[in-house]
Every structure is written in structure tokens, then in C-alpha cells.
Amino acid sequence: MQTTERPAPDAGRTAAWSDRLRSHGRRVTKQRLAVLDAVERRPHSTAEDVVAEVRAVLPAITVQSVYVVLSDLTAVGMLRKFEPPASPALYETRTGDNHHHAYCVRCGAVVDVDCAVGHAPCLTPSEHHGMRLLAADVVYQGICADCLAAAPAPPPDAD
Question: Which cofactors are required for activity (predicted)?
Fold first, then answer.
């Protein structure tokens, strides 16, 4: 089995993550840091993607351990989890800015879309039902430029 050499995580980023983990009452562990680094390297990763990335650094880590870390880091707001239609959940480290996502229905590509309003919740609902709304999750569905370029031209109209 061939292993891919991964560059060491950025020391400044690791220090910031360590501080955030402690501020949330979490111990700084190599498993948590490896998951954060994996998701940072590959935004919009599935849990399986994260497992593969983390195992490149920590080969003995279990799938269950990665899922537990993903769940915990999402619960404390260090990771964001979102679920495009007909797709497994995806994770990213970009949190706290209430951005949205565009999802290609052909190839599954996902890209970030910044809020047009510039502040959370970024959309104005018709009713808030007494809640203080914190965020709005929007997934735009479309066809990405690569898929459009690869698609055959539509047939001409038959008259």
C-alpha cells in the first residue's frame, strides 16, 4: 500500500484550534487535531473522506472514533455539517459566517456562496415563531460549469 506524504499542519492554525478546543472544554488530542486538519485540507468532505485523510496520519484510528470526533466538533461549532440533497453529509471548518452552498446535481461538486445580506440569518423568514433565528441554511441546486461544458448540445427543435 502506497502512502501519501502529508505536510504538517500549520503551527498557527493548530495553536488556534487548540485554544478553541480548550475554550469549549475539550482536551486537545491528536485525533481531534487530525480531524480538523483533514476537513480544513478538504472542505466539503464526507465522513468517509475524513476517515481516509485521518488514517494517512493516524493509521490505527477507528471509523467510530472519527465519527465521534466529527459529531463532537460539530456540536461545539468548530465544524459545520450540511446535507446536500441525495448526498451524504458534508463537513467544513468554515463556521460562524452563515454562508450557503451551491450543489451540482450532476457531479456533486459543492462550492461556498457568501450571503448577499452580509449578516446572519441572511434571509428574512415570513414568520419566526418566537425564535431568535441564528442562521439560514440554503443549498442552491444547479449544474456546475464543468458539467455544462461536458454535456452534449441539446437536440435542435424538430419542426
Answer: Zn(2+)
Query: The domain spanning residue 137 has which CATH number?
Result: 3.30.1490.190
Is 144 a known ligand-binding residue?
yes
Tell me: do 73 and 106 sit in the same domain. no
Could you please report the per-residue DSSP string of the chain? ------PPPPHHHHHHHHHHHHHTT----HHHHHHHHHHHHSSSB-HHHHHHHHHHH-TT--HHHHHHHHHHHHHTTSSEEE--TTS--EEES--SS--EEEEETTT--EEEE--SSSSTT-S--S--TT--------EEEE--HHHHHHSPPPPPPP-
Could you tell me the pLDDT band of residue 6, with boundaries at 50, 70 and 90? low
104 a known binding residue?
yes
- Say whether 115 counts as a known binding-site residue: no
Residues 29 and 77 in one domain: yes
pTM of the full structure:
0.80
Which of 65, 58, 23, 64 lies closest to 37, judged by CA? 58
pLDDT at 11: 85
